[in-house]
TrEMBL record:
<dbReference type="InterPro" id="IPR036188">
    <property type="entry name" value="FAD/NAD-bd_sf"/>
</dbReference>
<dbReference type="GO" id="GO:0003955">
    <property type="term" value="F:NAD(P)H dehydrogenase (quinone) activity"/>
</dbReference>
<dbReference type="InterPro" id="IPR051169">
    <property type="entry name" value="NADH-Q_oxidoreductase"/>
</dbReference>
<keyword id="KW-0285">Flavoprotein</keyword>
<keyword id="KW-0274">FAD</keyword>
<feature type="domain" description="FAD/NAD(P)-binding">
    <location>
        <begin position="3"/>
        <end position="287"/>
    </location>
</feature>
<dbReference type="GO" id="GO:0019646">
    <property type="term" value="P:aerobic electron transport chain"/>
</dbReference>
<comment type="similarity">
    <text>Belongs to the NADH dehydrogenase family.</text>
</comment>
<protein>
    <submittedName>
        <fullName>NADH dehydrogenase</fullName>
    </submittedName>
</protein>
<dbReference type="InterPro" id="IPR023753">
    <property type="entry name" value="FAD/NAD-binding_dom"/>
</dbReference>
<dbReference type="Pfam" id="PF07992">
    <property type="entry name" value="Pyr_redox_2"/>
</dbReference>
<keyword id="KW-0560">Oxidoreductase</keyword>
Amino acid sequence: MRHLVLLGGGYGNMRVLLRLLPNHLPDDVTITLVDKVPYHCLKTEYYALAAGTASDHEVRVSFPEHEKLNIIYDEITSINADQKEVSLKTNGTLSYDDLVIGLGCEDKYHGVPGAAEHTYSIQSIQKSRATYEKLNNMAAGSKVGIIGAGLSGIELASELRESRPDLDIKLFDRGPRILKDFPQRLSRYIEKWFTDHGVEVVSDANITRVEPDRIYNHEDVYEMDAVVWTAGIQPSLVVREMNVEKDRSDRVILTPHHNVPGNEHVYVVGDCASLPYAPSAQLAEEQAEQIVDVLQKRWKNEPLPETMPEMKLKGVLGSLGKKQGFGFVADRAITGRVARFLKSGVLWMYKYHNG
């Protein structure tokens, strides 16, 4: 019996399960999924959980059930590709024949003193819960700084404004304008929304230090009651400690078939993989589709194509509270209720197909 082990129950490995179960798994293959929590977490919605506009239950989806799927709830401590073993915190070691690593990412603090110790996070469901507790227990008029104005920072700032209109919110953006790599129309729309709703955007920011009650931006000091960090990610520590070739962002370099060079039994999906696109749930799912195709061919001893099809991403959608949104789809900028409706629809479809 061949043993496929999936590390992490994120978007990539959920797509692997969706493709293989219930009817496309060979009779001689079993699957073990390892994750710390007993459900799939909708990481793209953690901003709403942290802001208090979505319940904990709304950002979770149950793992599938199948007689050939075994689920272990544990923490992965290391991966030994030479021995084909995974070490677990409480369940010893787990052997595999094929391995798909989808362990996601964690905050990257870029060496900023105090950032790790004195900021809150939305990179895991546990940390998002802690952020929710902090932000929603604060007194009226408290000052909140959100460092990083990418998609997560924008959505958190807008959702927090709707949840807590009494707070003083500042969003620190390293660039000259929000989403500087997207059309100016989107930047102007988002910036106007923040202006109209009383969120201050601090452009060209460079946070040099974080203390328990203040942050330092260039020469300016901002008194803060809470700071949330959304200014960068890196692969999980287990992946960073693997003895494999990585790019300058510590993501694992892969062959065109998504396995580690020289090891056709170890695949990496999602945020830990070095790919020519920015990490996203959509990218992890597209990559997982190709990994399943490769696995099925290798299980059948069929030849692999020299190159894999180009992964075509559909675009980006973001929310500005519950009624407005923005997006860049098919090389076209969209704003307003239509963008928000599209994002809600994508989330509903995902839950429907995976729930």
